[in-house]
Amino acid sequence: RAPFDLVEADAELVQGFFTEYGGTPFVAYLFAEYMNMAVVSGIAVTMILDGWLIPGNPHVPGWVDPIVVIVKMMLFITFFIWVRATLPRLRYDQLMSLGWKILLPLATLNLLVTAIVVAT
Predict the structure, then answer these.
(1) Taking the model in full, what pTM does it have?
(2) Residue 31 is part of which domain span?
């Protein structure tokens, strides 16, 4: 998925994996992708946004709780789709440059700092 799907083959230049799958496998792939978004949104709502609690702690009836969770999940899903649509698609050389020149040194620095903090 964008931005980390790389354009390498002729079939991918047209529409990516859309040209390789058809019918049931295509629907299963899309369903799994959006189900993953829903599950991650549910976990994020539970862990980050306090699940069914409304900010400000108002007293609401119990039937409002599922609606609050669904609204928060829809906000997360909208955010995921918005970020995915606005990120640029990286070329192979850009992705390798990102990995080797930025992410690997950051991971090494993280490892060293963690080792120093744990040792002291």
Answers:
(1) 0.66
(2) 1-89
